Amino acid sequence: MIEEIKIFKDLLRKNAESGKVMFLEDNGLCFLADRTILWGDHYATHHNLTHWPRAEEFIPERWIVAEGDELYPPKNGWRPFERGPRNCIGQEVAMTEIKLMLALTIRDFDFKDAYEEYDVMKGNPKGLDLYGQRAYMMLRGGGHPA
């Protein structure tokens, strides 16, 4: 057991090593982590106007805008469950419940294809056909951020 503690000593440390730079501010200030525990504030991160324009507004479209748009989410900017050793232990349960509620909501809607409207919109009067079946191209996968 003593040998294992020696090997994994760095993993067991709560505080960073003395004199190591932990992060650098935008204005050039360095913060040293001498016996300091740094803790992220998720509320402040998710409401920071530098990274989230119009953060206090309810704008569901911010998750589907194109990259380069003002509302496009910053990479790793939305972290409701956190990551690493502080990861939320209820994340999988929450995501399963969200998927279940989405499935229960979707079943109340009727869906039908809109190939004719799509062909008119794209200027393709014949449509796409593959082995006698209507075909369509998928241009992108799931939403962001991931």
Automatic annotation (TrEMBL):
Transmembrane segments: none annotated. Pfam families: p450. This is Putative n-alkane-inducible cytochrome protein. Heme binds at C88. PANTHER family: CYTOCHROME P450, P450, PUTATIVE (EUROFUNG)-RELATED. Keywords: Heme, Iron, Metal-binding, Monooxygenase, Oxidoreductase, Virulence. InterPro entries: Cyt_P450 (IPR001128), Cyt_P450_E_grp-I (IPR002401), Cyt_P450_sf (IPR036396), Cytochrome_P450_monoxygenase (IPR050121). Pathway: Secondary metabolite biosynthesis. GO terms for molecular function: heme binding; iron ion binding; monooxygenase activity; oxidoreductase activity, acting on paired donors, with incorporation or reduction of molecular oxygen. Gene3D superfamilies: Cytochrome P450. Its cofactor is heme. The lineage of its organism: Eukaryota, Fungi, Dikarya, Ascomycota, Pezizomycotina.
